[in-house]
Every structure is written in C-alpha cells, then in structure tokens.
C-alpha cells in the first residue's frame, strides 16, 4: 500500500513540476499570459511548484525505508526520475503537437527501464 501511495504522490508531484517548469512555454500562446514579464512568469511557476512539494515531500516521507516505507533513498530517486520523464513525455506529446517520439527516445526509455531493474535488483 505504501509503495502505491508513494508512486501516486510522485506522479501528482511530477505533474505539477512539469507544469511549473515547462507549462509557461505553452501558456505563452494565451494572449493575456504572453504579455506577462519574466518576473510574473517566475512567480506563477513558483505558485505551481508549491503544489509539487505538497505531494513530493509526503511521497518521500512515506516511501523512504528509514521511515518504514518500502524504498531506499536511491530507489526513491530513480522512481522520481523515471516518473518525471514519463510525465514529461506525456505532457510534451499532448501540449506540443510539433514534438514527436523518435527511435533514440525509445532506446533511452529502454535504458531507463534497465536502470530501474538494476536499482531494484536485490
């Protein structure tokens, strides 16, 4: 149960992180948003990133083996990175129709899966 809760919270966290880091590139298509200065865009991104931390901190606290969770610190970090890249690719394909997945991206994904395999191997 703690493993699924941790993964779910990391998915939510990384969804907000992706919006905070890259959403402004898409939001710039909105007329009102495109008129904002850099400081305003940074403040909006910080506001979105706040929600990232609301999910990320509990995910790590619940998931960390030192707190009774199922994952080592290294496993938590690898999970977070893989989830980040999956969320990012989904966001990119949905929000930016000009981006495509190429063969080298697929090979990179295979290496990520192998990384998870080796990190979690006992």
From TrEMBL:
Keywords, comma-separated and alphabetical: Membrane, Transmembrane, Transmembrane helix
Keyword Flavoprotein: no
Residue stretches spanning the membrane: 36-55, 76-96, 102-120
The protein's name: DMT family protein
PANTHER family xref list: DMT FAMILY PROTEIN
Entry annotated with the keyword Amino-acid biosynthesis: no
